[in-house]
Amino acid sequence: MALVFAVSLAGAVHADNSLDPATAMASACSSCHSAHSVSSDAEGPGSLAALTANEIEQALLAFRSGERVGTLMNRLARGYSDDEITAMARVLTKQ
Ligand code: HEC
Fold this sequence. Notes:
mainly alpha; Cytochrome Bc1 Complex, Chain D, domain 2; binds heme C; Cyt_c-like_dom_sf
């Protein structure tokens, strides 16, 4: 179920041609990681704004390899290549 969600989410953002691919992919992150709050609530994931590009990149690589255990970031991270992870981390820390 979560895998299906992640795949369809990736498909949906790839279909949006009005943004460059990295920005479109990164926009999918904000549905769970709100852009401005430090932490939306105790249960949910925090904002990515407090992290550096390198921290986001390392976290995604660790989730993808299974080195870091999560509830759904592991499945989500598996949908992205090394280059896509690097590009998204840059976009997410640009603003
Ligand atoms: C469906 C909700 C959801 C989406 C979409 C999502 N995340 Fe997450 N994220 C989480 C949750 C929940 C965690 C906490 C770890 C876990 O349980 O998997 C997390 C954790 C993280 C962490 C670690 C944060 C920290 O403080 O160490 C990073 C980095 C991260 N996500 C990046 C991203 C990026 C980049 C994207 C977009 C590709 C993204 N997330 C999309 C839910 C989501």
